[in-house]
């Protein structure tokens, strides 16, 4: 089923699993309902703001003070970071994909109950500074949440170099009680120590201060154990060589105008992508698909 641009009135699709409506700040969004879960996606940034399995608390953290306005990123959920990660002189942090309103190309309600939505980043003034490319983003909702960011270099005779990152904010009960697994032995750039290169020595990373790290060459699954909620979150990925772990802690939280002073206690970002020295160079006609599957289970 191909959809046109959503209007302001709520319009469910034929199977009643996808509803187009105006979300916060009257921004267009989709509500998706499957036999196992619900999800919310804004067209601004193709931003997944929520995924919730039936019988589980929300998987994603969404800031109470987030702006919902064109041209501004949403704080929480899954910002799509592309085509660069971090600051870039004279340009916005983390690229323009997260502040651009994406087009819906297709909504696919599958016979098994899953729903996939395919978005396309439209041409915008910022894209003209790059050689031609297309960026599609496919979000699939079922028992888990699967995200695919597909970048194709459409240039005839030029490389396309970029970074990408699905900057995922997870909801946790108490960030000091969680542990993050799967990064032991990895080299990381420690942003809170002037990007000093370090090696992760812990198999169970704990958060007790500001953490802002780019783990390089990390392609394996990362897990977040949350004993207070009683949940294990699994982040499985393909075509992702970097993992970013971020919690702003106290002072940074106070500096962020769209983030509550105490909200850092209830979130952890575990981000999957290709950033810094793991950035991607695509030859003419080349394509790369960053795939991230987020799933969770109740701890026994
Ligand atoms: O991914 C971690 C990070 O790059 C941090 O350095 C931190 O500032 C964060 O992203 C949030 O960036 P934002 O531009 O959304 O405020």
Sequence-ordered SSE layout with sheet pairings:
Elements lengths: L10 E2 L5 E5 L5 E6 L3 E6 L4 E7 L26 E2 L21 E7 L5 E6 L12 E9 L3 E9 L6 E3 L1 E3 L2 E3 L7 E3 L5 E4 L5 E4 L11 E5 L6 E5 L4 E8 L3 E6 L1 H7 L11 E8 L5 E3 L4 E12 L2
Bound molecules: 6-O-phosphono-beta-D-tagatofuranose.
The site of 6-O-phosphono-beta-D-tagatofuranose has 11 residues, from strand 20 and strand 21.
Notes on the protein architecture:
This protein is globular. About 0% of the residues lie in helices and about 40% in strands. The N and C termini lie far apart (about 40 Å). The strands form 4 sheets. Strands 6, 12, 13, 15, 16, 17, 20 and 21 form an 8-stranded antiparallel β-sheet that branches. An 8-stranded antiparallel β-sheet has the order 7-8-9-10-23-19-18-14, with no helix packed on it. Strands 1-2-3-4-5 form a 5-stranded antiparallel β-sheet, with no helix packed on it. It is mainly β and about 300 residues long. The protein is built from 1 helix and 23 strands. The structure holds 6-O-phosphono-beta-D-tagatofuranose.
């Amino acid at each position: 089923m191909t959809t046109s641009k959503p209007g302001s009135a709520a319009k469910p699709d034929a199977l009643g699993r996808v509803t187009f409506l105006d979300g916060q700040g009257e921004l267009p969004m989709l509500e998706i309902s499957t036999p196992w879960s619900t999800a919310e996606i804004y067209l601004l940034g193709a931003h997944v703001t929520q995924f919730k399995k039936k019988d589980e608390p929300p998987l994603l953290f969404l800031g109470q003070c987030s702006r919902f306005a064109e041209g501004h990123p949403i704080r929480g959920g899954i910002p799509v970071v592309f085509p660069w990660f971090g600051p870039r002189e004279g340009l916005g942090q983390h690229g323009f994909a997260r502040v651009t309103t994406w087009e819906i190309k297709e909504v696919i309600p599958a016979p098994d109950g899953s729903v996939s939505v395919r978005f396309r980043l439209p041409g915008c003034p910022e894209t003209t500074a790059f050689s031609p490319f297309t960026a599609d983003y496919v979000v699939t909702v079922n028992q888990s949440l699967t995200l695919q960011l597909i970048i194709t270099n459409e240039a005839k005779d030029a490389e396309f170099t970029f970074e990408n990152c699905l900057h995922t904010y997870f909801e946790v009960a108490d960030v000091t009680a969680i542990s993050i697994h799967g990064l032991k032995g990895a080299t990381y750039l420690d942003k809170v120590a002037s990007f000093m290169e370090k090696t992760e020595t812990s198999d169970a990373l704990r958060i007790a201060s500001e953490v802002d790290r780019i783990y390089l060459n990390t392609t394996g699954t990362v897990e977040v154990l949350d004993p207070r909620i009683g949940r294990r979150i699994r982040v499985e990925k393909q075509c992702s060589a970097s993992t970013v772990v971020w919690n702003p802690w106290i002072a940074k939280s106070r500096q962020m105008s769209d983030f509550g002073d105490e909200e850092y206690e209830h979130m952890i970002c575990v981000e999957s992508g290709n950033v810094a020295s793991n950035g991607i160079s695509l030859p003419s006609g080349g394509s790369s698909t960053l795939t991230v599957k987020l799933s969770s289970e109740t701890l026994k």
